[in-house]
Amino acid sequence: MSNSTKLARATICQLIELGVTQYVLSPGSRNAPLSIALYQAEQKGLVEVTVKIDERGAGFYALGLSKASGEYVAVVCTSGTAAANYYPAALEAYHSANKLLIITADRPARLRKTGANQTTDQVQMYKNITSHDLHEQLELSQILLGGPIHLNIQFDEPLLSDDQEDWLQGIRHLELPKSIRTPRKFSAAGNGLIVVGHDHGGIDYAELLPWITDTGLPVIAEDPISVPMAQAHASLFLADEIIRNFLQPDYVFIIGRTTLSRSTNALIRATKSQYVIDPRMVKIDTERAATEKFLTLPELKIEGASADWNEKWITASARAASAINNEWSESEALRSVTSELPEGSALFVGSSRPIRDIEGFAAPRSGVSVFANRGLAGIDGNTSTVFGISQHFKHTYAVMGDITFLHDLSALVDAPTTNLTIFLIDNNGGGIFSTLPQAGVVGFEKIFGTPHNKNIESIVSAFGIEISRVKTSADIEREVIHPHQGVKVVIVEVPTRDEMASHLKEFYQRVSSAVRIGANLA
What we know:
522 residues; Rossmann fold; 3 domains; globular
């Protein structure tokens, strides 16, 4: 038996024993020992192997599997540029503290910096992510402790072996060590507020939601679909400085990272006491500024709030909702999608404009598992990520922009067989930039708007994927209420990017007026 075969088998055997059963494999030569070992383990029913030829998409697909399962998922490739293609997914996993196990095959260390083909320094490839350079067996139980991990495995020739040993016989499952933190006791006085970032610090909602309820404090959430007690449309009415001052809290609890909303961040900055709750401050966000920092939800004692404090927020939210009409737009389309999602389904929200529209326009609810690549908020790999997420749900939905979708078009080469509907906002370019300060600068359309001028319907159809078009809320309702089998792309026809920006500006003014009148601020 070759040493490479022994090392591959020992590594896979340990990982199976530690509960790593899902593997995403990109074909290659140097990772042949791992590929063969994984195939043999799959034949025994011990693991599930998915083959993805594009390493960048494979990394995000594995990331999606990990997000949905909460478990370690391994992604495996050969040496050289193949390993570099995992970097975007590795960065997203690092900043989101997702359990992504990156396994890269490598040449022996003696060949590094010698001009050997397909050989580079893979050990230092993923900055900030703990990397283990293996040329012999390593005890893995002490390294799978949360967050992404990199195993770089040196395989020497010969890579193959004709050994027929039943190396998987007698395999057993072990328990990974778990860390338990004792919550701190903490008292806060005055008018408080809770802000829940989209990633909610990785704290399970089953633990977080009862904690929020027990505090009795008003709450606003970047992901209102997962926080049913949240005050809707806060990012809209807080854009008005007079309303912000009226609702200014004495202190704020921030769960996870702060929201994208400039208005919410302005409210937070103006608050004297900021209490951050996020377990990732141990290793990732180590320089986070706050009045007090907590790695787990504290045991709170709240006192001294004004009698009308909660009512102020409830009224503001209700008045903002009254200003929302059914005028067709991107925001109305996403509001329609989120309101109709069936219980038990999953929703993936693409980066850029969609996540902002859902924060501002979606009504708080429950019963839906919401995911997004919020670690670095990139648009790359979004389709591959939702493909992975969809493996864990009976019905999955996604909303994303056309540029985001085209950025990960190669994912369609190997679409899953799961029931997945992707609502694709078709505004022929980067709609988000029409709402940012650079809107209207000389050269805007070329360097920011980036119209693709492609027939997306023809492109998607070429991959054999079902596609349809919608242009009303009623059309969207039909697509959600009557789920189909397999993957489907639904192109959402919306007004132009300039019209959308103008609509949002008018809408903010309408919300501001309604809330001011309701609070006697006009």
